[in-house]
Design brief:
single chain
């Protein structure tokens, strides 16, 4: 989900897309693992409020980490990369929530 969003914001060259993919491959499994571990301890998935209570701070951390990694790897406008990171993660989180609730 993050690659099409990054491409939509102009990160279309091969290097940029590889960087986006690698950053996502690092942060996404970590976020999912933490979510599953917490769900085993406390059922935060039982209500929409629980999902928001977990996802909001977790996604903020991921946005910041991915933004800094993108800035380090690609350089360029810090503000633009923050916007791209936020948009990628918003789309990814929304898709994840939709898929989660459909299953």
């Amino acid at each position: 989900m993050e690659l099409p969003v990054a491409a939509g914001f102009g990160l279309r060259d091969r290097r940029s897309l590889v960087v986006v993919a690698c950053v996502s491959l690092v942060t996404n499994p970590i976020l999912n693992w933490i979510g599953w571990a917490l769900a085993a301890a406390v059922d935060w998935t039982a209500s929409p409020a629980g999902v928001v209570a977990f996802l909001a701070p977790a996604e903020i951390v991921v946005v910041i980490v991915e933004w800094r990694l993108l800035l380090w790897a690609l350089g360029g406008s810090s503000r633009r990369l923050l916007l791209i990171s936020a948009a990628m993660n918003a789309a990814s989180a929304l898709a994840g929530v939709v898929i989660f609730w459909l299953l």
